[in-house]
Amino acid sequence: MVSLFSMDISQWIIAHSLEIAGYLLAIILIPRILLERRHPGATIAWVLAIGLVPYLGVPLYFLMGGRRVKKVSLRKDWGRWDENPDAGSTIIDSFPPDNQKIAQLLLRTGTFPPNTNNRITIIDDGITAYETLINLLKGARTSIEIATFILGRDEVGKALVRILAQKAQEGLEVRLLLDALGSLRTRGRFVQPILDSGGKVGVFLPLLPLRRRWSANLRNHRKMTLVDGDKAFMGGMNLAREYMGPRPYKNRWKDVSMIIAGPAARYVRSIFWQDWSYSTNESLDPGVLCPVPQELPGDGNTLQVVGDGPDVPERPLYSGVLAALNRAKESIWVVTPYFVPDDALSAALELAARMGCDVRLIMPEKSNHPLVDLAGHSFLVDLLHAGVRLFHYQPGMLHAKLIAIDKRLAVVGSANMDIRSFQLNFEIATFLYDGESVKEVLDVMNSILHECREVSREEIAGKSKIRKFSEDICRVFSPVF
User: Alpha-carbon distance 136 to 132, whole Å?
Assistant: First the structure.
C-alpha cells in the first residue's frame, strides 16, 4: 500500500515536473520583478504572466525580461553634456520659449546640444530613398558606417553589400552593424563579401544567452548611414525592399527618412560609434564620441540629435516627447505604425485635445503586428472621446514615425509611439526647431493624410464584445510585447 502510494506520488511529480518547476521559479522571480522598479504596468503584466502561466511566463521572462545593459557610451566614458550646462546655450537662447525648455531638458538628460548650419532633406518614398542612399554610398571618399535593424535578403540588401564590398576594396573604412534579431537571415555568408574586401561587420546583442544575458528583448532599432562623417541618412526605413528599392514594389510600406548634411551628422556618428564599440570592442575615439559643440547660431536647419536606449536611465527621447506634448498650445500631429502609449503619453494627448488643441493620430488601418494593434486600439475610445482625431492610412502599411507640435517643433526618427521604443529599444531621433524643417515635416504629414480616412468615435465604440475583450487583455500585457 505504501509502495503504491509512493509510486503514485513519484509518477505525479514526474508528470507535473514542468509545472512544478515553473511555479518554483515563479516564486523566486516575482519578488525580483517587484524590486526592479519597472513601470507599474510592466510589473503587473510580468507578474500575471509568470503567476498564471509559469511554464510560459518564466522562459519568456528569461528571454525577454531584461531591460538594462552595461554599454560603453558617451555617458560612462567621455563625460556628459549635462555636466556642461553652457554647451549650445547661445543657440538655445535664440529659440522660442517653449522650444528652449525642450532643448534644455534634452541637454540635461545627457543629449547632444542643438546646432545650426545643417541642411536636411525629408524623403517619403522608397524609390527616391534608395536612389539617394546609393548615390551617397557611391560618392563616399573616406568612410561608410551603417547600422540597421533589418538588412533584407533581397535586391536591396544584395546591392548594398556589393557597394560596401567595392568601397572596402577601394580602401575606404567600411563598417556595417546589424541587429542580431532583425537581421537574423542576412548575417554570415550574405555579408561575407564585405569582410573579404577588408570591411568590417558587427552584430549588436547576439541572441545566444550564453554570450549575453537578457539580450533578446533589447534590440537596436536605429537606422543610421554615415558617409565621410558629415552626411547622415536616418529615420524609419530599414534596408530592405519593403521600405525602399530601385523600382515600385506592390508590398512597399509608406515610410520616411531624412538626410542630414552638416555638423549634426557628427552626433549621429557618435551614436553609431558607441554601438559599434560596444558590439565589437573596437577602441573608441574621444574626438568622434564628443564633437566640440557649436557655440554661435548660424544659417541652415537647426536640430538636436537624441540617442536613447535601456542604458540611459534618464530616457531623454521619452522625456522630450512627453514634455513637448504637454507644452502644446495649438496642435499635435503624430504619425506612428504602432500606438501603445503608457498612461502619461495617453493622458498628455487627451488633455491637449480637451484644451482645444488640434490633436491628430495617424496610423495604419492594420499593421504587421495584430497583437500590438489590439493593445493599441484599447486606448482609442478614451482618446476620441476627449477630442483626438484618428486617421487610418488606406494604401497599406504605414511605417513612418513623425511628430509635429504647434508648427514650431518636429521629431523624426526610428522610434514608434509605443512602450517598446521608449523603454526597451535603442533608438535615435532628431528634434527639428526651425520653421523650414517643421514645414517640410508637416507637408509630408499632409500628403499622408490625403491617403487616410478619418475614423469616427461611433466606429471605435461600436466594436463587438469579443473584440473589446481581446483589446483589453492585450492592453494588460502590452508592456511585454
Answer: 6
